[in-house]
Amino acid sequence: MAKAQEVFQNRIIGYATKPADQFQANALNYRKHPQRQRDAVNASLRELGWIAAVVENVRTGNLVDGHERVWQALRNNEDVPYLQVDLSEEEERLALAIFDPITNMAETDAAILDELLQDVNTGEAALQELLATLAESITVPDGDEWAAGFGNLPTEDKAPFQQMTFTLHDTQAEQVTEAIRIAKAAGAFVDSPNENSNGNALARICETYITDYGQS
Known about the structure:
By secondary structure, the protein is α+β, with helices and mostly antiparallel strands. It contains 8 helices and 4 strands.
């Protein structure tokens, strides 16, 4: 019996490595790489090495994915691992247009990301900055359907909870964000009646300050 045709056609036809200067950049690559990203890519390659191959179309010789990683490897003309794919020119243009945007459509599970970041460490400054940015992205708030819904409740239904608003300078906001991250990392708020982790973290910070510096 003939094998049924695969729903998803495998266009990968090989895997190899070759020096960085033997790759051909795609003239239609529209992705630009700011210095902050370049620093992060370089730091990732130094710390983790190659954990994903770049992608080259064998019909045209063009890169489809991985331009920045190849650029980083050009400094010492290092060998770069790459997947060989077989695409027409039209398919190559489509892949170039949608490959990164489809990845960027993914949404973040804030609770899982928060748990992941608590156990991630790196000695690379650029990656530390990236991790800090990720942490900032989940501090507002991670239980926040509850927090958003709170503001819509009638006044008589809000007790015994209340909302507090503060105005901060950017530098102060960075300090508060980091303090909340550290407070969350200290462990779960098992005895709290509050479902909002940011509120719990702020209360924990204040409790520590009162304990250390408060006057009787």
